[in-house]
Amino acid sequence: MQPLIDNARNFGHRPEEFARLAAGQSPQVLFITCSDSRVVPALITGARPGQLFELRTAGNIVPPHTSTHPTSEAATIEYAVEVLGVRDIVVCGHSHCGAVGALVRGDDLTAVPAVRDWLAHAAPRPSGAPEDPEVAEAVQCHVLTQLLRLRSYPCVERGLAEGRLGLHGWYYEVHTGAVRAHRAETDTFESL
């Protein structure tokens, strides 16, 4: 913890670098990714403060849209699209994902009921080789499922229909740093 505290103390010693951020934000991208500490959107993309609007959830899950029980995730997506006017949404899965791995292996999650119930939103259960620690194929399929789910959000549906919004599926390898993007033409994930 101490190195984090030391950095936080020094971080505020450059107010001129951050003064422009007080005027507001206008990110162009909503970046939806896993809560995993090894996935750092600004590091992966090189984004500076104000360039990415982030939504981090266990397993980069986008829950089903419902107007009767709004979720924090739905509010974040709606705000990004309707208020901030983001032009693109990236759903970024990653190798060695504990959430997707647990689903693929069929892990018993009774000891962590909130995790178990959250992962139920990932349906359908991703398929893949249970012994594969990278769970690459399963994560990539999971990313595509989350992109399909995003399309059911009214604000996303409108943005796509009006041509003002693009959706992108990415796969990040934590062990190499490589990023692959889904190509609809070939239905494969290829290097950026």
UniProtKB/TrEMBL annotation:
<comment type="function">
    <text>Catalyzes the reversible hydration of carbon dioxide to form bicarbonate.</text>
</comment>
<dbReference type="GO" id="GO:0008270">
    <property type="term" value="F:zinc ion binding"/>
</dbReference>
<dbReference type="Pfam" id="PF00484">
    <property type="entry name" value="Pro_CA"/>
</dbReference>
<keyword id="KW-0862">Zinc</keyword>
<feature type="binding site">
    <location>
        <position position="36"/>
    </location>
    <ligand>
        <name>Zn(2+)</name>
    </ligand>
</feature>
<keyword id="KW-0479">Metal-binding</keyword>
<dbReference type="GO" id="GO:0004089">
    <property type="term" value="F:carbonate dehydratase activity"/>
</dbReference>
<dbReference type="GO" id="GO:0015976">
    <property type="term" value="P:carbon utilization"/>
</dbReference>
<dbReference type="InterPro" id="IPR001765">
    <property type="entry name" value="Carbonic_anhydrase"/>
</dbReference>
<feature type="binding site">
    <location>
        <position position="97"/>
    </location>
    <ligand>
        <name>Zn(2+)</name>
    </ligand>
</feature>
<comment type="function">
    <text>Reversible hydration of carbon dioxide.</text>
</comment>
<dbReference type="InterPro" id="IPR015892">
    <property type="entry name" value="Carbonic_anhydrase_CS"/>
</dbReference>
<keyword id="KW-0456">Lyase</keyword>
<feature type="binding site">
    <location>
        <position position="94"/>
    </location>
    <ligand>
        <name>Zn(2+)</name>
    </ligand>
</feature>
<comment type="similarity">
    <text>Belongs to the beta-class carbonic anhydrase family.</text>
</comment>
<dbReference type="InterPro" id="IPR036874">
    <property type="entry name" value="Carbonic_anhydrase_sf"/>
</dbReference>
<feature type="binding site">
    <location>
        <position position="34"/>
    </location>
    <ligand>
        <name>Zn(2+)</name>
    </ligand>
</feature>
<protein>
    <recommendedName>
        <fullName>Carbonic anhydrase</fullName>
        <ecNumber>4.2.1.1</ecNumber>
    </recommendedName>
</protein>
